């Protein structure tokens, strides 16, 4: 069944509702990152690392608009993976209501609406515009004070829907290729058991090739989207 392109109704313990995309006029929060990550895992059926890569690329749209240098993508992905694993450990220990567990949960929840900070280690030195420097400092405050202007959120939402449809189509193709490969193997086995002469047919595409095609298509579509929404931006305190 094709996954819904809207935010899911699934409620994730400690996080809240899943979301199919990051929205708003601030740099993404920890909650937004995790809610989209869980949506990709449950609805789009991506792996954890695929989902993390997808979310990082979406985050970078906002950071590029803010003109703030960021860490390299692999470091951003690892940051998401670490946050996800910590969240999952808390969820798995939820039935053990010790003081430590409850304190860890409170601390985790209190940080969810704060900035998912992927700024370059020397961002404040690299940034030359004082307005941009003040913006990242305000976003690092509790609740991420200030907002980012200039993002065409309607366009971003429309491109997100296109991207999700592409992912769904590629997932269906990958499953179809895998099913076809199983059928071919079954037919080959039947022919061998009945003594039929082997005919040298070319094998169907493997699931690995299909997965590679999926990842390339995702990256191409995200790069396209980033190019479309990229443009001038500004900040409001």
UniProtKB/TrEMBL annotation:
Residues 182-200 have a biased composition (Acidic residues). It comes from the Eukaryota. Residues 173-216 are annotated as: Disordered. This is Uncharacterized protein. Residues 201-216 have a biased composition (Polar residues).
């Amino acid at each position: 069944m094709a996954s819904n392109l809207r935010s899911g109704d699934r409620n994730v313990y400690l996080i809240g509702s899943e979301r199919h995309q990051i929205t708003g006029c601030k740099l993404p929060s920890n909650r937004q990152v995790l809610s989209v990550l869980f949506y990709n895992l449950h609805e789009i059926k991506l792996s954890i690392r695929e989902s993390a890569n997808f979310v990082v690329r979406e985050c970078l749209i906002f950071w590029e608009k803010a003109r703030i240098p960021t860490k390299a993508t692999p470091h951003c992905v690892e940051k998401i993976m670490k946050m996800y694993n910590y969240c999952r450990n808390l969820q798995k220990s939820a039935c053990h209501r010790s003081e430590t567990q409850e304190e860890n949960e409170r601390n985790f929840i209190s940080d969810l609406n704060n900035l998912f900070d992927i700024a370059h280690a020397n961002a404040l030195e690299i940034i030359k515009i004082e307005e941009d420097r003040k913006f990242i400092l305000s976003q690092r405050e509790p609740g991420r004070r200030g907002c980012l202007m200039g993002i065409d959120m309607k366009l971003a939402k429309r491109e997100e829907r296109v991207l999700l449809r592409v992912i769904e189509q590629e997932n269906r193709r990958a499953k179809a290729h895998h099913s076809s490969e199983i059928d071919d193997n079954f037919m080959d086995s039947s022919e061998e058991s009945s003594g039929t002469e082997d005919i040298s047919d070319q094998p169907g595409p493997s699931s690995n090739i299909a997965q590679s095609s999926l990842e390339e298509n995702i990256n191409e579509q995200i790069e396209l989207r980033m190019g479309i929404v990229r443009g001038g931006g500004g900040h409001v305190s």
